[in-house]
Specification:
The chain contains ten helices and 13 strands. The chain is an alpha/beta fold. It starts with a strand and ends with a helix.
Length: 302
């Protein structure tokens, strides 16, 4: 089974405008209320690719109930922990013709008792399960939370996937995560360099592999994507030509989900990479994540 953890899920309130005019009353062309959070996005794309998963994390208040309702509407199994106080966050995303503006809330305070409940749920993981760690950290949770989770499950032979930044990512490498997925900006931040091309991305992906990562997947936007697999083989893929970019939110999560679905289905890293790229490419064409038909269309175009 695949388990995704979203520590700080949200309702995404997406507003489409022709143009946002400051200091004026703006009227939307359309709006959407959708479940948000990197782990939730991974679970939704997995489901659309016929792969089951369980979503874990913390929810609270009326917004938390709505998040759970919307995720379950996607036919995904949830196992959220309900916090006693506060409300899950609402993030506002404003889409203009050629611009994208986001206002992200901080989220509720997570108490130690609730963190312990999460650790108890992780005790149920079994050998060869996959655990996806991704996204931001809410108030009350220490920045070493991913490291602590890895420590608690280190003897279970679980495949760990980490999609996060800087210390959150680096501190997990000693546990030899199955997959990490920085984008090229995040990869550059780790080593204080600017990643300009695929060869450079592979060079620095090797450094992360030397620190413990098994497979390193780097998304590079218009510059394509690279994968350095656990056997030392590198793959370079150009970006899929896409003239209908609507919303880039969730593209990286879709790549993670597509990669995992491809790995489970095809048992090889090249096809896993292709399905990851196809999933990300389909997502940017939509207000809310790619559809199965679009993903398959992109995959078959390779």
């Amino acid at each position: 089974m695949i388990y995704t953890i979203t520590l700080n899920p949200a309702l995404d309130y997406i507003i489409k405008l022709k143009e946002l005019v400051p200091n004026e009353i703006n009227t939307s062309e359309s709006e959407y209320i959708l479940p948000g959070g990197k782990g939730i996005n991974v679970s939704i794309i997995l489901k659309r690719l016929d792969v089951e998963s369980v979503t874990l994390g913390f929810i609270s208040g009326f917004t938390g109930k709505e998040i759970q309702k919307l995720v379950e509407k996607e036919k995904i199994q949830t196992d959220f922990i309900n916090l006693e106080e506060g409300h899950s966050r609402i993030n506002v995303k404003i889409l203009e013709d050629e611009k994208e503006t986001a206002i992200n809330s901080k989220g509720p305070l997570v108490d130690n008792k609730s963190i312990e409940k999460l650790y108890q749920k992780l005790n149920n993981l079994k050998e060869n399960d996959i655990l996806v760690l991704s996204g931001s950290i809410p108030k009350g949770i220490k920045e070493d939370i991913y490291e602590e989770i890895c420590e608690k499950i280190k003897d279970k032979n679980v495949k760990i996937v980490v999609d996060s930044t800087k210390k959150l990512l680096l501190n997990t490498l000693k546990y030899r995560p199955f997959l990490i997925k920085p984008n090229h900006h995040e990869l550059g931040e780790i080593f204080n360099v600017q990643i300009l091309n695929q060869d450079q991305a592979i060079e620095y992906a090797k450094k992360l592999q030397q620190k413990g990562a098994q497979n390193v997947l780097v998304s590079m936007g218009e510059k394509g994507s690279i994968l350095l697999d656990e056997n030392g083989k590198s793959y370079k893929k150009a970006a899929i030509s896409n003239k209908n970019v609507i919303n880039t939110v969730g593209a990286g999560d879709s790549m993670v989900a597509g990669f995992l679905a491809g790995y489970l289905k095809y048992k090889n890293y090249e096809d896993a990479l292709k399905l990851g790229i196809a999933s990300a490419s389909a997502t940017v064409n939509n207000v809310f994540l790619g559809t199965k038909d679009e993903i398959n269309e992109y995959f078959n175009s390779f």
